[in-house]
């Protein structure tokens, strides 16, 4: 029920007083976006004026935007690598930030094959928490009654390490779920999860997933929203149910917990939750045993009002599959964030995936935007509707004019804060889950595999392209290879080609290998050998559609259905990686 009308907000009538406060905050920030940005930059510059990094540029104590923009260069991660390495090695002097770096957040973006290390400071947790606290007040404007049920969210921690200097290095969500902010969160009727903290915090991904799914099944009628961070994660959970439903039914029938769940704290907390429920066990068997899994989400959790997952950017490839499993429930993309900084939220979370826009919150960091094809960065409030920009951030933790690598298009404004459609991440060719493979990484991997092929049978890869195949769960990389088999060379054997698959996987970056080994979120890489002349046909096809013959280049990744179909119709053999590549949480030194 809406509260007192004098608490109402231009965004809509808030569901409770707490929501009214959050919506007022959004209004205040977005109305005064430019002033908030100006003050925030001045605060960062004043606070960090004695850092080694800022002193290098002789700001002379200035905290204004003009001086900042004239004197400080726009940079990428590689420019900052020496400073980051020193901090990681234990140098505690104020290099980037006056506040001590509390930990490194390991981005899914990589540099030299390893996750980028993003410095962060303790208070950034509060800033992230603040953005999280705005999500439900906005959602409550669109979906009533969320306080009457629970969220079934599949949330996971990942492995973490320490840098040589002793700082934790872990993904931002692992840092958040392990923080007091999350673990000791006060009860909020609008934010109750079916998953116990013990399950979310269990580092073993099988035990964590098993327990979270089991709790979701036990409490199925309370569930009003189902989600994961990314669409790929939710699909993985559905696949998990497909593989293990009979074990769940057994546990529920007898009120026991599967033998593979050995984590002490999970067993302890589940002993108070699980009770024999033969009727529910029978229901699960009936629903899951058939081949027919359409609308499985609404069949098992019939009170679900929406799916909460990110389906923008690389995740858009999963929309049709999610629609199939959810019977067309709305998909809410609630926020846009990264390890560098949390950026903003979707003020219209029930919008169609293709129309999702994120409103950047001007209190999170100082934002600048480089127009695509241009060089001069513009302010947050000065971006133009319809134009595309690359995002640049200056954070409290000490990133200064740092290129995030995301391309955004302006779709409108909420008050004076712009709203952006996420267009793409720069230089990403292939992505299944959080893995991101760029063209040069793929090229290197093909070269390494091609060398192996040559050593074993004298053949080479003449042409190649790739495809992210998400028709399987988990999805996997497909490489189409046209081979050059010289006179006298032997035809490569199936064994050799499977070894080439593994060689490619070994050559890909650590996020890819972690996804394969620890998260099981990417399936074995596949090579499909196509018959000779296929890539010439591909060129003919492109030219028939208007490509210039002089400038034609083989696309290193394809996703246009007719092209994929053409390639598939020319396949002579298919080969999968026979084993897992190597991966350990430890980073390789440069
Ligand atoms: P990471 O640094 O690993 O946390 O990854 C952050 C990146 O994920 C961002 O820079 C984006 O490229 C992508 N990302 C985060 N949120 C979204 C979103 N809502 N839609 C599309 N891409 C996103």
From TrEMBL:
According to the entry, every stretch annotated as the GH3 C-terminal domain falls at 441-560
UniProt name for this protein? Probable indole-3-acetic acid-amido synthetase GH3.1
Query: Which keywords annotate this record?
Result: Ligase
Q: Lineage in the entry?
A: Eukaryota, Viridiplantae, Streptophyta, Embryophyta, Tracheophyta
| Organism from which the protein derives | Camelina sativa (False flax)
Gene that encodes it: LOC104766696
Pfam families recorded? GH3 (PF03321), GH3_C (PF23572), GH3_M (PF23571)
Belongs to which family? Belongs to the IAA-amido conjugating enzyme family.
Provide the transmembrane region boundaries. none
Q: Residue ranges of the GH3 middle domain?
A: 358-425
- Matching InterPro entries, A to Z? GH3, GH3_C, GH3_M
């Amino acid at each position: 029920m809406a509260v007192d009308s004098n608490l109402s907000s231009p965004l809509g009538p808030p569901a409770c007083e707490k929501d009214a406060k959050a919506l007022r905050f959004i209004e205040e920030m977005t109305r005064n976006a430019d002033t908030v940005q100006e003050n925030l930059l001045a605060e960062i510059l004043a606070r960090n004026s004695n850092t080694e990094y800022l002193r290098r540029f002789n700001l002379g104590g200035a905290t204004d935007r003009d001086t900042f923009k004239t004197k400080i260069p726009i940079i990428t991660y590689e420019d900052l690598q020496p400073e980051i390495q020193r901090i990681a090695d234990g140098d505690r002097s104020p290099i980037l930030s006056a506040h001590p770096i509390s930990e490194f957040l390991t981005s899914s973006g990589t540099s030299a094959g390893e996750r980028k290390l993003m410095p962060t400071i303790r208070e950034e947790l509060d800033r992230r928490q603040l953005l999280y606290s705005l999500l439900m007040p906005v959602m409550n404007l669109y979906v009533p009654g969320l306080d009457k049920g629970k969220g079934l969210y599949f949330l996971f921690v990942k492995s973490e390490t320490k840098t040589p200097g002793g700082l934790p290095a872990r993904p931002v969500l692992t840092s958040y779920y392990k923080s007091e902010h999350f673990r000791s969160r006060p009860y909020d009727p609008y934010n109750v999860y079916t998953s116990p903290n013990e399950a979310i915090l269990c580092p073993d991904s099988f035990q964590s997933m098993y327990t979270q799914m089991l709790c979701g099944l036990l409490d199925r009628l309370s569930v009003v929203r189902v989600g994961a961070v990314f669409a790929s994660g939710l699909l993985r959970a559905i696949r998990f149910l497909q593989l293990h439903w009979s074990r769940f039914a057994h546990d529920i029938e007898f009120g026991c917990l599967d033998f593979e769940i050995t984590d002490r704290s999970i067993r302890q907390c589940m002993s108070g939750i699980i009770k024999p429920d033969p009727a529910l066990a029978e229901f699960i068997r009936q629903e899951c045993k058939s081949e027919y899994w359409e609308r499985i989400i609404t069949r098992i959790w019939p009170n679900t009002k929406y799916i909460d997952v990110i389906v923008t950017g690389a995740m858009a490839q999963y929309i049709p599959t999610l629609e199939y499993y959810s019977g067309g429930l709305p998909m809410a993309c609630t926020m846009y964030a990264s390890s560098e900084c949390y950026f903003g939220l979707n003020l219209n979370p029930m919008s169609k995936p293709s129309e999702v826009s994120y409103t950047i919150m001007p209190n999170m960091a100082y934002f600048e935007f480089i127009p695509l094809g241009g060089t001069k960065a513009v302010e947050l409030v000065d971006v133009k509707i319809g134009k595309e920009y690359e995002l640049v951030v200056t954070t409290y933790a000490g990133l200064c004019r740092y290129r995030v690598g995301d391309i955004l298009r302006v779709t409108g404004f909420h008050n004076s804060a712009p709203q952006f459609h996420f267009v793409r991440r720069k230089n990403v060719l292939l992505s299944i889950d959080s893995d991101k493979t760029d063209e040069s990484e793929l090229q290197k991997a093909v070269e390494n595999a091609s060398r192996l092929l040559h050593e074993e049978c004298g053949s080479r890869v003449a042409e190649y392209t790739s495809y992210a195949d998400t028709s399987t769960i988990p999805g996997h990389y497909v490489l189409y290879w046209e081979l050059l088999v010289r006179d006298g060379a032997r035809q490569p054997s199936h064994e050799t080609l499977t070894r080439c698959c593994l060689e490619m996987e070994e050559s890909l970056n650590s996020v890819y290998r972690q996804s394969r080994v620890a998260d099981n979120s990417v399936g074995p890489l596949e090579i499909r050998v196509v018959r000779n002349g296929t890539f010439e046909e591909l060129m003919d096809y492109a030219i028939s559609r208007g490509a210039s013959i002089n400038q034609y280049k083989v696309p290193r990744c394809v996703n246009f259905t007719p092209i994929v179909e053409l390639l598939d119709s020319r396949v002579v053999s298919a080969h999968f990686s026979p084993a897992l590549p190597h991966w350990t949480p430890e980073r390789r030194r440069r």
